[in-house]
Amino acid sequence: MQHYTMRIGDRWVDTDERYDIVNPATGEVVATLAKGRAEHVDAAVDAAWQAYRESGWRETPMARRAEIIETVAARMAERAGELGELAARENGTPIRIAQGLAVGLPIAHMQYFARLARNYQWEQPVEAVGTMTGTIRREPLGVVGGIVPWNFPLLLAVWKAVPAILTGNSVVLKIDEKTPSGTTVLAELLLEAGLPDGVLNIVSGDGDGVGEHLAGHPEVRKISFTGSTATGRKVMVAASGNLKQLTLELGGKGANIILDDADLDLAVDGSLWAFLVHAGQACESGTRLLVPDSLHDEVVGRLVARARQLKVGDPVDPGTDIGPVITARQRDTIMGYLAKATGEGASVAYQADLDEETYARGNWVPPTILTDVTNDMRIAAEEVFGPVLSVIRYHDDAEAVAIANDSEYGLVNGVWSTDLDRARKVAEQLESGTVWVNDWHNLNEKLPYGGYKQSGFGRELGPDALDEYTQEKAITYETSGRSERAGWALLFGADAASS
Description:
Elements: E1 2-4, E2 6-8, E3 11-13, E4 18-22, E5 29-34, H1 38-54, H2 62-78, H3 80-91, H4 95-118, E6 123-129, E7 132-140, E8 143-147, H5 153-166, E9 170-174, H6 181-193, E10 200-203, H7 207-216, E11 222-226, H8 229-239, E12 245-249, E13 255-258, H9 264-276, E14 288-292, H10 296-307, H11 328-343, E15 347-351, E16 368-371, H12 378-381, E17 388-394, H13 397-405, E18 409-410, E19 412-416, H14 420-429, E20 434-437, E21 452-453, E22 456-457, E23 470-478, H15 486-492, H16 494-498
Parallel strand pairs: 1-5, 8-9, 8-11, 9-10, 11-12, 13-14, 13-19, 14-17, 16-17, 19-20
Antiparallel strand pairs: 2-3, 4-5, 6-7, 7-23, 12-22, 15-16, 18-21
Helix pairs in contact: 1-7, 2-4, 2-6, 3-4, 4-5, 5-6, 7-8, 9-10
């Protein structure tokens, strides 16, 4: 059985206490992980600062840094099958989806970050004003921390660690205790490719102890966190102690709007994709489906017919479309939400029949489509994080926008229409960091990704992704050999300033 340890400085560090890594489809222990403590965070931060000051990494030419990342991306592609299977066994992502989203996207995004790095502008001249010229210079922050969730751990580790490493920082990543494999492989490949010891450190442990300690550590200059809004608030409080920079990508309750001119074949399949990927365990899931009155019954009928064709089962089976949820606790939470929804008046239009014999082990939640949902119900307001779709009626475009925006979240929304001008007008009114038109889960590396409102702030991906891990310095030059003295005269008087 594989045992994962932490990487601190130049060592792989084990502990007496261990986490069991449980396959959510079977309940079987498939690996173990060293359980870190606050003292390991301290050691990792110390090692990161030592590497930042002594390893020479921040002086390494950008072309060499980019080469290392490109090498790792290529080696990761060679091991895509292995990484996909590890993800399937650890967090229940069906292997087809794991190899695309959980492995394929990290590879593509690493390649993109490396291309950005090769053309990165560390300095920009400032246009001369009188006899003064200047330079705007970007510099690394120092040591940055990343807190990675369990649902897409390799992808989100790449988003946090790779831009930081490319810009000359050292990194401490806190990984989730349920899904260590992908991030461990990332660290191994980076070391093999030539990354100096201590530039990337990996610690494990619980969120309230290890995660909060990292967020509040006085020697960490920035934290990038992906997770729930509730935990994001804790991270923000902890980080406020030394005013460190923050990127928070938090919860979502995506509104998926089908306009009355939409291509229904495309919109229905896309809407299933929006809420069923990884059994709905993605913060950018489209879990509120807004449908015009005139199309409601047809859309629901099509959704149910297509949902019946999907297979719930073993994530390692290439024929599986939908896997389990991550823990028994999460399963019970989701089932509780469903009970509350029907108690508030929602109707079950579809629920997969998961017979007890086949699904006796594991954390299974039947994919469910609810109708007669109103936006004030808990099922429509709160992030369920499961394979549950709430269908909400609307009358016109203005009401659809109002319903979509009536949420504390603002991560993603979507619009389906054959009229792109009309879709754009709707998209421009939606309060979210991303709006997908005729698509969903399109995490294009060239587009910035992040939230409005309680879905967080800061951006990952996009052309400015590397800037998030640097700070600006202004350097000015007086080129005449003497100042124009106007400011000095205000302090010393005109006669003294001219002497």
